[in-house]
Amino acid sequence: MLEARNLGKSYGSRKVVDDLSFDVMPGEIVGLLGPNGAGKSTTVAMLCGLVAPDSGQVLVGNGHGAPLAALGGADAARLKARIGVVPQELSIYETLTAEANLALFGALYGLAGAPLRTRVAETLAGVGLSDRAKDKPATFSGGMKRRLNIAAALVHDPDTLIFDEPTVGVDPQSRNAIFDHLEALRARGKAILYTTHYMEEAERLCDRIVIMDHGKVVASDTLQGLHCRLPAVDSLELEIEGEADLASLAREPGVERPQQQGVLLRVGLADLARTAPVVLSWLAAHGHTVRRLSSGRANLEDVFLSLTGRQLRD
Amino acid sequence: MNITAFFALVRKDLVLYFSNRRALVMSIAAPIVIAAFFGSLFGPSSDKPSKIAVALTDLDHSALSQRVATSMAADDALEMKPLDEAAAAAAVRAGKVRAAIVLPAGFGAAAPQALLGGSTRPVVRVQYDPSQAAGLAIVRGLFAQHVMESIGQGMAAMPGARASAGFTLPFETQATAATAADKHAYNSYAHSFAGMSVQFILFMGIDIGIGVLLARRLGLWKRLRAAPLGRATLLGSHIASGALIALVILSIIYGAAMAIFGVRIEGSMAGFVGVAIAFALLTSSFGLLIAAIGKTPEATRGLAIFATLVMVMLGGAWVPSFIFPPWLQTASLAVPARWAVDGLDAMTWRGLGAAEALAPIGVMLAFAAAFAAIAIWRFDWDEPRS
User: Do B220 and A42 touch (CB under 8 A)?
Assistant: First the structure.
C-alpha cells in the first residue's frame, strides 16, 4: 500500500502542497483529481521519490501486516522498486524495440537473465503487444505506445502503481483496453493511484476519489459519498414560457438553486420523485407553460466544480 | 551501484547512438572528408611565422661560430636555443623548435675561405619540423644573413684579406625533415585527422548532453529517476557510454586515416591509447556539462556547437596553432581541445614516446574531472515545479 502522510512542499514562498494525507490500499484504485496548479504533479513527484517533501512522509508497505517504511529513508531504493510509475508523457525509447524497452526498464529494477526475459514476455502479453515485441515504438499507433508506456511500469511487478494521466490522446478502444488492464491489476491486489482530468474515467475506475485544490485535500470519499456532499443530487431542466420568480421558487420545499437562462430553467432537487411535482405545480400556478422537460443526476464533474469552483486555472 | 542497471543503461545508449545512422555517418564521414580537404591544403607549403624558435648546435667552437650564435641570439625574428645535437633533434620532433642547425667542426676556418670561393664549403645540417616546412626557407635565409655578417666582421679585422672572383655562399645546407623516428616522410593528413577527430567527437559529446535534455522533456528522465538508481549510476552510465562511443568513432576515423591516407602511429601505441581514452572521457564529461547547464535542447545545441567550434579552432584543430600569435598560442593551452590535438599529433606523426603523452593525458583528465564535478554540482535533479 501507499500512504501520503502530512506531506508539505514549498517552492520559495509558494506553498504547493500543504499537509496532504491519503492512502491507497491493496486491491484499490484511488483517483487523485484537481484543477491545474492544485499541486497534483508535485504530490505525484513526492510519491515517486522524485522530489523530497519539506514535511511529512511517503510510506510504502505490502499491506499484509508488515510495517510501512518511509520512501525517503535509508532503504529508499528497495522501496522505490515496489512502485511502478506511468508518466503522463510517452516515456519510452522510440528507436529501441518494445522488447528492448521493457528489458531496459526491467534491468533498472535489478531483473536480469531468464527472469527478465520471462517478465518482458508476460508484460508484453498483458498489454497485448506480444506480436509487436520486435518492432520499434516509432511504428506504433498512439494507443499501442500508451500501452507500452504502461507496460514499462509493470515489468518489475510492483505492488503499488502510480498512473499520471495515462490515457491522454488515446482512442476509445485503447482507453477501454487500458481500463480493463487496470481492473485486472486491481483484481491482482495492486494498490493503484490514478490521476486524471477525465471525470468519467474516475467514475468508472476509482473505488475512492481524492480531490485536491491549492495543495490541500478538499474531499476524499467514494463516488457516492462525494455525491452526498452536493446540495442537490438530482436536477430538472425545463423549457418554459416567461421569466420565473426564482426567489419564490427557491422557497419551495426540496428546491435548490434554481437558475434561468432565456427559456431554459434549471432546478436542483434533493429528491426527484418528491420535488418534481412541486416544481411543476409552482410553474402552473405562476402561469408558466412547460414546453420540454428532462431530469438528470449530478455527476463527478458537478461535485468537482462544486468543490473547486468554475474559475479558470492556469 | 546497481551493476545490472549500469550495464543496461550503457547498452541502451550504445544501441540508441548506433541506430541513428544519420548521426553516425555525420560523426565518421564528415571528419574524414574535411580532414582530407585540410590535409591537402596544409601540406608542407604554407606558413607565416611570427618569432621562429631555432636550436643551434655548435660543434666548431670557433670565433666565427660563436659570433654566428651571438648574432642569431640577438635577432628579434628568432628565438635561438643553444642545444646539443641530440636535444636539438628531439626538440624539432616534439615541435618545440622549428629547425635545428648544426655548425660542423671546421666551420670557422672553412667558411671565410669559401665565401671568397677559395675552399670547399662546409656542410651545415638543418633538421626541420615538416608540419611547418615553409619555415625552413626563412630559417635558411636568416642563418645565411647571420653567417655573412659574422664573416664580414671577422674579415674587417684581417688586413691581408683579398678579394677574389666574387662572393659565394660560404656553406652548404643539408636539410632533413625531423619525423617520427626518421622512418617515414611527413604525412600532412595526420594533423588534419587529429583536428577533425577532436572536433566531430566533441560534437558527439554535445549530442549526449542534448539527449539528456530531451529525456527530461519526454519524461524519460522522470522514469529513470523513479527507478531505484543512485545518481552515480545515472550520471556514470552516461559518462561511460559517451566515452565508449567516442573511442569507437576515434578508432574508425583513425582506421580510415591509416588505410586510405597512410597515417601511422609512429610514436607510442600505449600513449595513443592513453590519449584516446583521456579524450573520450573529456568528451563524455563535456556532454554531461552541457546537460547540466543547458535549459532547452534547441537553445543549448546552438550555443554548445558555437562553443565547441571556438574551442577546436583555438585548439589547433582547423589550422596548426603555430600560425597563431605567440600570446594566443600560450592562451590556447587553457583549451582542452589543444591538448587533445597535440596529444594525437605527438603519438602519430611526431613519433614521440609514451612519456610525451603524459601531459596531454593528465590535462585532459583534469578537464574531464572538472567538467564532471561542475555537471554534478549544477545538475537539476528536481522535476519541473508545478
Answer: no
